[in-house]
Design a protein that fits this description.
Blueprint (H helix, E strand, L loop, with lengths): L2 E5 L2 E5 L3 H31 L4 H31 L2 H24 L5 H29 L1
Antiparallel strand pairs: 1-2
Helix pairs in contact: 1-2, 1-4, 2-3, 3-4
Length: 144
């Protein structure tokens, strides 16, 4: 986590978190899978089940809002970690709360919840939790 850089007679430590950066990368790839799988399941549910038309548009809208939040969350988190700034990392942590709420919506309150929905949302919530812990540790290291 903390390395030592030497150059021109001075020493500084690297505070950015490698495990957090790796988790950002893995979570970005996983979210792409999550988005496509959830989109495919919504289409499947609308064709196979009697999916109310009034709920199809809101589910799709929330999925696309979640995708926008995810891109912003990962960008700010990665930027904050690599530049060792607590501002973008803290903002990413705040956006994670919104992403968690949307993930819980797709886990619990969606019109139809399949077993596949439960599995992919549980994995996503697990990564959000682990990422949040690592973000708090990184922010504490940046502030001190």
């Amino acid at each position: 986590m903390a390395g030592v850089r030497r150059g021109k007679g001075r020493t500084s430590s690297v505070l950015s978190s490698l495990p957090l950066q790796m988790l950002f990368y893995v979570n970005g790839i996983y979210y792409l899978f999550y988005f496509l799988a959830t989109l495919a399941m919504i289409v499947y549910k609308s064709q196979v089940f009697s999916y109310p038309d009034d709920f199809l548009a809101p589910d799709l809208t929330l999925l696309f809002i979640m995708a926008i939040l995810e891109v912003l969350r990962l960008y700010l988190g990665s930027k904050g970690n690599l530049t060792e700034e607590e501002g973008p990392l803290g903002l990413s942590l705040a956006i994670t709360v919104g992403s968690v709420i949307l993930s819980v919506y797709f886990l619990v309150w969606q019109t139809y919840v399949l077993k596949a929905d439960v599995i992919i949302n549980a994995v996503l919530l697990l990564t959000y939790g682990l990422e949040s812990v690592l973000k708090v540790i990184a922010i504490a290291a940046f502030v001190s």
